[in-house]
Design brief:
Layout: H1 19-23, E1 32-38, E2 40-41, H2 51-66, E3 73-75, E4 79-80, E5 82-83, E6 89-90, E7 92-93, H3 95-111, E8 116-121, H4 127-141, E9 144-149, H5 162-176, H6 214-240
Parallel strand pairs: 1-3, 1-4, 1-8, 5-7, 8-9
Antiparallel strand pairs: 2-6
Helix pairs in contact: 2-5, 2-6, 3-4, 5-6
Length: 246
């Protein structure tokens, strides 16, 4: 009996493997380690603040279920944080600590003998810092680090991308089986930030997408997940075929 740490596909879930299995893993060089990177933010979608994790972990589970060769993936539990203090996020971390946090995950993968790490990033807040950590891990530990952002799969939480944002709302609605709560988005409370600290990103408006019914979400979510999962598998196949570092 395993404890459910998150939404996952058990055959490809790292925590469901013993240390003995991981130590004797038959093809470490030919296995991708996937690290979901998620935050906790009120994106104004009418849903809980773990929308990023719900989307990315459900997507990874769906992709793993249709993956032709399950022995090519190992998926870590989500790395949960919010980079920098922000009035609409929970679990904020200073940027320096965020960098160290991600580096520690990458170091653990490298010291376990695996050579290819993929950060699967859900948050627009995290794209730059995940990219920077990936470059440093490559230099310091000699592993190949790749980054797949959720917005590259056609799903986007950023208020400036209404089509991708509607897809995100649709997926969370279908996952939770609960229609979004259409409430006004509270203005950012900048007074909650430490004196002298600016929010890393504070858009002027967090407009909620048009009202979405549960029936609409259930009708369209399978196609969105299917396209995103197919795209994700294609990307990881390219990564697996990428030549190793010299």
């Amino acid at each position: 009996m395993f404890t459910d740490l998150c939404i996952h596909d058990s055959p490809t879930f790292w925590p469901h493997r013993s240390w003995q299995e991981l130590e004797k893993w038959p093809d470490k060089a030919g296995t991708l380690v996937l690290c979901p990177v998620t935050g906790h933010t009120d994106w104004g979608l009418g849903h809980p603040m773990d929308a990023e994790e719900l989307i990315i972990t459900t997507l990874l589970r769906h992709a793993a279920e249709i993956l032709p060769d399950k022995g090519k993936w190992l998926t870590l539990p989500p790395c949960r944080f919010a980079a920098g203090p922000h009035a609409r996020t929970s679990f904020p971390m200073p940027l320096e600590l965020t960098f160290s946090h991600l580096r520690a995950w990458g170091k653990s993968v490298a010291e376990s003998g695996f050579r290819k790490l993929v950060f699967v990033n859900a948050s627009p807040f995290h794209e730059d810092i995940v990219d920077a950590v990936g470059r440093d891990l490559r230099v310091e530990f000699g592993i190949q680090v790749f980054i797949i952002n959720l917005n590259g799969l056609g799903i986007n939480l950023h208020p400036d991308y209404p089509e991708g944002r509607l897809r995100a709302q649709t997926l969370v609605t279908a996952i939770l089986q609960q229609a979004p709560v259409n409430e006004p988005i509270a203005p950012s409370n900048k007074a909650a930030l430490p004196v002298g600290v600016e929010a890393p990103w504070d858009p002027p408006e967090w407009n909620m997408p048009e009202p979405l019914s549960l029936a609409e979400a259930n009708a369209t979510a399978p196609e969105i997940f299917g396209k995103a999962a197919d795209h994700f598998i294609r990307l990881t196949t390219e990564i697996l075929n990428h030549p190793p570092l010299p």
